[in-house]
Amino acid sequence: MPTSIEFDSTEIGNGTYIPRYVKHESIPKREVSALQLARDDGAVFISEKYGSKIITVIGKLTADSRSELETAIDTFKKLFSGVEKNLDIEWEGGTRRYIATCLEHNFNRDYFHDLFVPWSAQFLVVKGIGKATSETEAINNYGFRPTKARTVSFLGSAKPLPTITITIGTNWSNAYGIKFENTDKEEETIINYSTGFTEDDEVIIDCEAKKVTLNGDEIEFYRVFPTFDIGSNNIQISAGDLVDQIFDYSGKTFYTGSAARNEANGNDYVAQSLTVPHTDATYQGLTLFLRRPIAGVSDLKIEIQTDTSGAPSGSEVTNALFTIPMADIEISADIGGGAWVTVNSTSKFTLNANTVYWIVIMIDGDNVDSTVVWDRIQGSEATYGRGFAAYTDDGGTTWTNMLNADRPFKLLFGGKVDTPGGRTIIDIDYYKRYL
Predict the structure, then answer these.
(1) Count of alpha carbons within 13 Å of 21, Cβ hemisphere only?
(2) In a designed cystine with 100, which of 3, 87, 159, 397 is the match (CB 3.0 to 4.6 A)?
(3) Is pLDDT at 342 greater than 70 in this prediction?
(4) By the 8 A CB rule, do 150 and 144 touch?
(5) Can you give the CATH number for the domain in which 231 is found?
(6) Tally of domains in the chain
(7) Which domain holds residue 159?
(8) Is the pLDDT assigned to residue 367 strictly greater than 70?
(9) What angle do CA 289, 293, 299 make, to 5 degrees?
């Protein structure tokens, strides 16, 4: 039996109301969504969630006289008429708080009930979950430098909804974006800030309130709020060079025909189109899957160009210019034998939402010793969806689009990777939640 039961800050577990028992341990009904199979038995599991919870309290109300009992009943009914009030139950060395509304409040009164009367009440907890009244520290004052991985653990019986506080350290001069990720679930929150972070800036990811703030002001973010399991979770924080758009070659087969359509050399350029779902001013990086058949002498030039009539326009986005030294590119004569190469522009640049852009690679001079190959995936495995590959053999005067092909790439935003001089601090606090 709990040592204390309060509703709307009024103690129920006392000599007046005298609760006999509180049934709060049962879990809410688990609601499962399933798709019935069309031509087979059973169904396929889709998702699950918990519904509302019922808490039952039974006790005895006492008074010193019949008239006082009548008054106590009215006072008791008024107390339980409150809507969405705190129902606090002291349990297992702590207090569990449910936001509850009394559905039924009954008095089982007989003729001899002059100084006491049995009563019962049913409370509806719409959210189905209770939580502790005090926070628990999961990670306290932990210093990190991007990129950093760590394990965090949570207690309770319902999935935790932590508050993640990141306090920026010194010398953040290049990174304009932070990513917090639960790597077990591949769920991430990205916060880009085009004017840059400074020492003691405080970024808070509130997974329960579903908002992100910077120094107390709510700001926009990308992706989702990470979810967590009870027990251990692996997390990681990154800053700068964050992936926005990606087409990965992993598990796919490179196209083995028409290799010339993948080669940059002299007037031969190769390209990949893309679009982004949001306007952002912190783009600064690219990662391309490249190779060179033999040692080269000229560096690779890359531009992100605007679109004209479904082809690269020849005009680059302001500041979206890149150079990759030939020595940084993998030497391989084999199709698909390249490696990822990351490069940053000198300054950040802006890309606009739902606008077609082109990544174009080229080499000055028609020198066979400076050929760079950007191999492509073709057919049903070309699944990027927001663009396609193209090539030109006349320096960009005419382009040929390959609508069923994509080239492996990653478009990076959030500025560049930083190595801050001072510690950046992470704190993770949460309220234990109970079914």
Answers:
(1) 4
(2) 87
(3) yes
(4) yes
(5) 2.60.120
(6) 3
(7) 136-241+420-434
(8) no
(9) 70
Preceding omega of 147 cis (within 30 degrees of 0): yes
Model pLDDT, residue 170: 86
- The pLDDT tens digits for 8-58 are 999 998 889 999 999 999 999 999 999 999 889 999 999 999 999 999 999
CA-CA distance, 125 to 87, in Å (whole number)? 9
What is the CB neighbour count within 10 angstroms for residue 144?
19
What is the C-alpha separation between 397 and 420, in angstroms, rounded?
A: 45
Cα three-residue angle 69-75-80, rounded to 5 degrees:
125
Dihedral class, residue 173 (left if φ above 0, else alpha if ψ from -120 to 50, else beta): alpha
Q: Please tell me whether residues 201 and 344 are part of one structural domain.
A: no
Q: Is residue 147 over pLDDT 80?
A: no
76 close to 119: Cβ distance less than 8 angstroms: yes
The predicted model scores a pTM of 0.90
Of the candidates 211, 327, 348, which has an alpha carbon nearest to the alpha carbon of residue 284? 348
Instruction: Let me know whether 267 and 378 are in one domain.
Output: yes
Same domain, 398 and 266: yes
**DSSP structure string for 251-319:** T--B--S-GGGGEEBTTBEEEEEE-BSS-EEEEEEEEEEEBBSS--SSPEEEEEEEEETTEEEEEEEEE
140 lies in the same domain as 233: yes
> Residue 190 in contact with residue 178, Cβ under 8 Å?
yes
Tens of pLDDT, residue by residue over 177-207, are 999 999 999 999 999 999 999 999 999 999 9
**Average pLDDT of span 257-285:** 94
Q: How far is the CA of 93 from the CAs of 99, 230, 243, in angstroms? A: 20, 19, 45
Q: Are 188 and 226 in contact (CB under 8 A)?
A: yes
Instruction: List pLDDT tens digits, range 318-328.
Output: 999 999 999 99
CA angle, 207 as apex, 163 and 187 as ends, to 5°?
A: 110
pLDDT at 155 > cutoff 80: yes
